[in-house]
Write a structure and sequence with these properties.
By secondary structure, the protein is α+β, with helices and mostly antiparallel strands. The protein contains eight helices and four strands. It has helices at residues 3-15, 19-24, 26-50, 59-62, 116-138, 140-146, 169-172, 193-216, and strands at 82-87, 96-101, 105-111, 177-183. The chain has a four-stranded antiparallel beta sheet with strand order 1-2-3-4.
Length: 217
């Protein structure tokens, strides 16, 4: 994967963020996208070989659109400043997200602001065995890679049906259950970039499996 070509393309795109520029550089865009999809295909095979629960996700199925949704976010630019994709993308579960951008790149996974029914299932699971999730989050190697849960909106009090003095009240207050590892775009040029992705995937697995089983079992 020629990540340098991707970053150069993204920089040019952000300096000329318009449909006219994209139309004039459509061949370049397709070249970068094709290269990224091929890289995703290779990672799809690699991750499937190390995870017996992996859900086959070819690059074309995992890659996100580069267009911003201007209907809901009219203030945004026409095009994003990154290429993003989900791997291990089993329907109705949290996937493993990879984003390569100009200023930052991330590995992430979990559930971002799930709907009320899914959130209730997660909270019921935490009520039942939240100590299992807490042990995963407290693991030293996990904290080195991801730190803490992604900071997002939280309830100020206990969720309906749970007491304020619940032993896992801090987890129950969350509306998002996701973790993120952020790194610079320069790191994608390093020879061990794929190894870093695989390490992050493995480290995140117990966390994602806990969440996914909570909402599917």
């Amino acid at each position: 994967m020629d990540f340098k070509n991707m970053i150069v393309f993204l920089k040019e795109l952000q300096e000329n963020n318009s449909k006219e520029w994209m139309d004039a550089n459509r061949k370049w865009y397709r070249e970068v996208r094709k290269d990224y999809v091929q890289w995703l295909d290779e990672m799809n095979v690699t991750l499937a070989a190390i995870d017996n629960e992996y859900y086959d996700t070819p690059g074309k199925r995992g890659i996100n659109r580069i267009n911003n949704n201007l209907l809901f976010h009219p203030q945004k630019h026409v095009y994003k400043d990154h290429f993003g994709a989900g791997l291990d993308k089993r329907p109705n579960t949290g996937d493993f997200y990879v984003e390569i951008g100009i200023d930052r790149c991330i590995f992430a996974g979990g559930l971002w602001r799930p709907d009320a029914q899914v959130l209730r299932s997660l909270r019921d699971a935490i009520d039942y065995d939240g100590e299992v999730l807490q042990k995963i989050l407290n693991k030293k190697s996990f904290k080195r890679v991801f730190g803490e849960l992604y900071k997002d909106e939280r309830l100020k009090t206990a969720p309906k049906g749970f007491s304020q003095d619940h032993p896992h009240i801090e987890l129950l207050r969350n509306k998002t259950f996701a973790v993120v590892h952020e790194f610079s775009s320069k790191e994608v040029f390093e020879s061990n970039f794929n190894s870093k992705l695989i390490k992050a995937y493995k480290e995140m697995l117990p966390f994602r499996r806990y969440l996914n089983r909570a909402i599917t079992v």
